[in-house]
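INTERNAL AUDIT FORM
Audit reference: QA-55
Scope: verify that the stored structure record matches its stored sequence.
Auditor: D.O.
Record contents follow.
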Amino acid sequence: MSAARRAYFAHHKSASLRRAFVRGQQTHLKSLETAAACTVTAAGRLAELHTYADRMAVVSPQFDPTLTEPADDAIATITSDEENCDVDPEDLDCPVPPTEYQATAKTLRDAAAILKGLATKLTAITPPTMSVGGYDNVPADCGEDLATIAATHKAFSGSIAKWDATLERWAATYASGKSPDWETLDYVPNASSIWEEPNRALHVWAVFVNSYWSALAEHVTSAPTVPEWISNLSDEECPPPD
């Protein structure tokens, strides 16, 4: 910039022209500094997001509906047995034996323990700090209210903790020789799944992580790609409807 200034001054003696030239150089320098700062910030934020995704990847094998399917199956089985006994109380397998209630309670407690362990691990992971202005347009296109990664992480973790507590309550009911009153609950034996709510929260989380990653990657040279397991969760771009 000094060489350019000397060359300009050599051909322009006017003080006002020289001042205007210097101001132009200063403005250009400021714009370059701003762009550089933006690039560094984007790279730093992407690195932070990458670290967070790596920590989530460690626990991702537990994002598996098959881990709670035994509980769904146990509920379905004992509910069917109760209904059969209501229809034919004289059946040889009626009434439903206490051992079946105890076995169902144990299966639900086992599933609750899995969810409790997952919720604990999720709580120990700190999401990256960011603002909702950092996304591309995918979450909005999906009709999702913009939320930070921290908020979607908390929603997913919260849904896991909720179902841990729910299964513990249902297990206590079965252990007492009774069944939950399904007419008052948002769960239908043989139709619903324990993993439905956490699964939707997980897909919402993946959409937001994918969107934020893509937005940051646009400002980073040779940016890493979104981890495949996250992109697979959001490969349809929008999470499944409620």
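Auditor finding: record pair retrieved intact. The chain has eight helices and no strands.
Action required: none
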